[in-house]
Write a structure and sequence with these properties.
- The complex is a heterodimer of chains A (280) and B (317).
- By secondary structure, chain A is mainly α.
- Chain A is built from twelve helices and two strands, in the order H-H-H-H-H-E-E-H-H-H-H-H-H-H.
- In chain A, helix 8 runs parallel beside helix 10 and helix 9 runs antiparallel to helix 10.
- The longest helix of chain A has 50 residues.
- In chain B, helix 1 packs across helix 3, helix 8 packs across helix 13 and helix 11 packs across helix 13.
- Classes of the chains: A mainly alpha (280), B mainly alpha (317).
- Chains A and B meet through helix 1, helix 4 and strand 1 of A and helix 2, helix 3, helix 6 and helix 10 of B.
């Protein structure tokens, strides 16, 4: 594809994908700043006029001081906002940079809202920093009369952080609660993995089947289900399911598919592969 | 001139919505419903930004121009806040209310019925048909058009505010009444849209990976089950209607952006064609209701003025 064709698309994509979230962030923060600055400017003029009746110089000094303080506040808020805007611009696909920008933002005393906390948590999960991600996810809750409430997707992610850091008990507790997640196939997949780790292969197979029922193309669930079937010696069943699924998978480039085929051919158990599922 | 505060239609609507939210929050034992998270706040800010800018300009003029007088500045600032605030309050209360109500009363999704209507009218829902035209350039263009839904009302509002206060009020009132009508539609006909409900029918991706974070951001700005009617179409139709009243240049400037917005709602797989038709109907109803409510307000205020004049002419002894 020629640069003449690629470059406009790339520039357009950057402008739209990066600049508009940053623009929206700026607008949201500039509005209260404008109102506060307006109040300060009016107060500055009133103070100058009142003091100038007795002492012109004092009036000018107070005016300059208030205007300078207002300008300093505006600069502080704009720096904070620009750090947040940079985080919006780099996006989750640059997880390490996103984490640095959010860290800089909190260093400048920026408030971590539930929206920011969720975005930051996703970036930390992409870096496999499960404990840090969980700490951020705990900030995504909203207060209610019955305490802090978390949406089901946040609870699912909290469960994932426990799972990937090896705390199966807490992972299961969180996943059981996340019934209304918008990604049920992830929930069932992790519950299946937990059941398998506990030795309950029948229950594990049920959960993995439910995951595939929710999303027939979710390969992690498919891989581990096939592995479990082969662990139980059910190679024919595994072969049948693989033949059914063959058209859905890029069998040439999917390395895990090749592992399953090799295992089938040699009647061995394929290795346990860890898939890091971060889709919410 | 009477110095009494005159109640306007938008004030009454805000009070009604606020009261309804309070009652609902009380019955749910949750006053935390009266909150607005950042995901909603930036949408509100697009309306408040013009007002905040006008207030800042007036304040800066007063601060740095020795000839500027306090009374005139206060009058200007309070006029701006008085004219814009009811809409901002209404929007913030309304957003809080909507998300709270939905958690309680949404019924089963109606995507199947909406898809059936599209297929009866056109043979296939346009989102699926449009797959053959997908390209990164078109995707970015339609994302931009879809996003402008949040920018165009603010831009037109500030232009109308500077030339005709009544037209400004008509415009914003129509936008918010369309929101109320639209939300009633969401509750009556909940649906998630073709992109989510019928994802397996879409065999072509958008090929525009860098644009995906923006789609995610816009999804945050959209409420759940907000498909029928399309408020993107309703609000942009209202923008077009009042742009025409602002002048030919405004109409010609807005027309391509609005048409692109209409197409974008289907290209981006958010809406069925029937949602677009319902959006047009919602806009027409909102504009008509606005005219009716403002006419009622005019009659009440002119009746009050006549009574005042009569009382002044014939004071009781």
């Amino acid at each position: 594809m020629s640069p003449r064709r690629v470059l406009p698309d790339a520039i357009g994509s950057f402008i739209i994908a990066a600049m508009f979230p940053a623009f929206a962030t700026m607008i949201a923060r500039v509005v209260p700043l404008l109102l506060v600055a307006s109040a300060c400017l009016i107060v500055a003029r009133l103070a100058r006029d009142r003091l100038a009746r007795r002492n012109e110089a004092a009036g000018r000094t107070v005016f300059v001081a208030i205007v300078a303080a207002t300008a300093a506040l505006a600069i502080f808020v704009l720096i904070q906002t620009s750090l947040l805007m940079m985080a919006r611009i780099v996006g989750r696909q640059n997880a390490a940079r996103l984490d640095r920008w959010y860290s800089a933002y909190t260093t400048m005393h920026g408030r971590v809202t539930p929206v920011i906390a969720f975005d930051w948590a996703m970036a930390l999960m992409m870096q496999r920093r499960w404990n840090d991600a969980r700490a951020r996810l705990m900030q995504t809750g909203t207060p209610s009369a019955k305490g802090v409430r978390y949406n089901a997707d946040s609870v699912l992610l909290i469960g994932e952080t426990f799972f990937y850091s090896g705390d199966m008990r807490r992972a299961e507790q969180a996943l059981v609660v996340a019934r209304r997640t918008t990604h049920p196939y992830v929930r069932f997949y992790l519950l299946g993995r937990i059941a398998a780790a506990r030795g309950d292969t029948s229950r594990a197979l049920e959960f993995l089947a439910m995951s595939l029922q929710s999303n027939g193309r979710f390969f992690p669930a498919f891989y581990h289900r096939q592995r479990l079937l082969m662990t139980r010696g059910e190679f024919e069943r595994a072969r049948t399911e693989m033949n059914t699924t063959r058209g859905e998978v890029d069998t040439q480039r999917n390395q895990q598919w090749k592992l399953l085929e090799q295992a089938l051919a040699t009647q061995a158990v394929p290795p346990s592969v860890e898939f890091y599922v971060i889709e919410v | 001139m009477s110095s009494r505060f005159k109640l306007r239609v938008e004030d009454v609507l805000t009070l009604i919505t606020f009261s309804a939210l309070l009652i609902f929050a009380r019955t749910r034992a949750s006053l935390t419903l009266l909150s607005l998270d950042e995901g909603r706040y930036w949408e509100l800010s697009f309306i408040m930004f013009p007002a905040a800018l006008l207030v800042f300009i007036a304040s800066a003029r007063y601060a740095f121009d020795v000839r500027a007088e306090l009374n005139a500045t206060v009058l200007q600032v309070t006029s701006v806040l008085r004219d814009w605030m009811p809409f901002a309050l209404f929007l913030s209360v309304y957003e809080s209310f909507r998300s709270g109500v939905w958690a309680v009363i949404l019924g089963p999704d109606r995507d199947a019925q909406l898809l059936a209507i599209d297929r009866w009218m056109l043979g296939e829902t346009p989102s699926i048909t449009m797959q053959r035209f997908i390209s990164p350039l078109l995707t970015n263009m339609f994302i931009l058009a879809y996003f402008l839904h949040l920018v165009l009302p603010g831009v037109l509002a500030i232009a109308l505010y500077r030339r005709d206060l009544l037209l400004f009020r008509r415009f914003l009132l129509a936008v918010f009444i369309s929101g109320v009508i639209g939300s009633s539609g969401y509750i009556a006909v909940p649906a998630v849209g073709p992109g989510i409900a019928y994802a397996p029918l879409f065999t072509v991706s958008f090929e525009s990976t860098p644009a995906d974070p923006l789609l995610g951001m816009m999804d945050l700005a959209r409420a759940a089950r907000d498909v029928f009617p399309s408020l993107h179409v309703a609000v942009s139709s209202i923008v077009l209607w009042y742009a025409a009243r602002a002048g030919r240049k405004w109409l010609l400037g807005m027309l391509p952006l609005v048409i692109a917005n209409w197409i974008a709602t289907m290209y981006l797989r958010y809406h069925y064609f029937i949602d677009v038709i319902a959006g047009w109907a919602c806009a027409a109803l909102a504009i008509a209701l606005t005219a009716l409510l403002l006419e009622i307000e005019r009659r009440i205020t002119s009746g009050a003025r006549e009574r005042e004049a009569a009382a002044a002419a014939h004071p009781q002894t």
